[in-house]
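hey can u check if this looks right to u? its 238 residues, i copy pasted from the old doc so theres a chance i mangled smth
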Amino acid sequence: MPKVQPISCLIVDDEAIAREIIETHLSKIDNIHVVASCSNALEAFNHISNQPIDLVFLDINMPEISGISFAKSINSTIKVIFTTAYRDYAVEGFELKAVDYLLKPISFERLQKSLHNYFEIYGQKETKPISSIDESDFMFVRSDRKMIKIDYGSIRYIESYSDYLKIHEENETIVTRETITAIEAKLPKQQFLRIHRSYIIAIAYIQSFTNEYITINKKAIPISRSYKKEVLKHLEKF
């Protein structure tokens, strides 16, 4: 069988963490080639001018040249998946015939669905997650000037302190400079649950729970009012 040509992608976002999340998700999918990760539209223009690009993951709210303006200026053969933290641009995004409109934080499952739309519309074979790497096995975080591998199964809970996180394992705590929203997007939803603006817990390690808190490793972790309804609804399934 002839080899399927990889899909050439650009990631364009002024937030480094947002770019890293999308690039990490895409690295788990066969036949996707990330040509470049760009922090602004001008940088992206340079890549489009010098090589063929099939698909752009494009933030909308960027300085100088917005994602909307950028999308209007490029060749219509280059398809766009908008990525943004704001719902307000959805109508304008779809008027530009975008493949999809993703709200941050972007999960792996939601990005996969978006790519499925792309392949269905434009007739290319859908790719699958790399079989040798389970998407729910591990992640890397930066701590103490090095990248540390963390198995998802070792995490008990994650605690946020503004731009820093404490990732609590059974006998170790790893500190990394990242937001809880960014780390939430990396975690497999079937294994982890956000219960508070400052806490994510590993479902498998819940020892007990009430309407007010969840106990893990003998620590009572509060369930905030804004998350309570969804958290209790989720836990009642078990």
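DSSP finds seven helices and 15 strands in the chain.
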